[in-house]
Specification:
The chain is an alpha+beta fold. The chain folds into two domains: 4-133, no CATH class; 139-185, no CATH class. It has six helices and four strands; from the N terminus they run E-H-E-E-E-H-H-H-H-H. The chain is globular, with a radius of gyration of 17 Å.
Length: 186
Amino acid sequence: MMDVTFRPIPTWERPTRSRVYARFDSTHAATMELLEREIAMLDGRDVVIGGGWREKDIRLDGQPRSNAPNPSEHPGVEVSFSVAKRGRLVFRTDRFDRWQDNLRAIALAMEALRKVERYGVADSGQQWAGFAQLAAGDTESSERGRLLVEQHSSVVAALRATHPDHGGNARDFADVTAYRRTEEER
């Protein structure tokens, strides 16, 4: 089994698209099996799955709770992982109303992209090029977070000042968190 990290993405900065209301008829375990197989076929590592969960929706072992509600903030899901020859690949969608269906859509899309290469339709690796250009997380949020960190003189001070439990703004807190995550990935 592949080591996968699940993390909350408090705000979804992508434009709202029309939603598909149908659901996939599959279990979370089957989706994770497909996703892990597709990432393994690319020799992917450092897998991170982000969604609109709250911290309390993530279990101690890092998986979302089985009863984790569909996030009220957004149902969007982002899967990112590193591939030696291609860099970090990022896949995101919020087309479906449930996060489980968005995760399944990403796994199926990855399977379809790998078929492009298998069937010889494109040169080796062409279909992955655009996904390697996407940054993990939201770069605008990360930049706002950097400015807030500079304003408060450190990441810890900025997190403390922007934390909603201490009178701060949830979006500012999310931006500082995005900046911290970006810095940790460097």
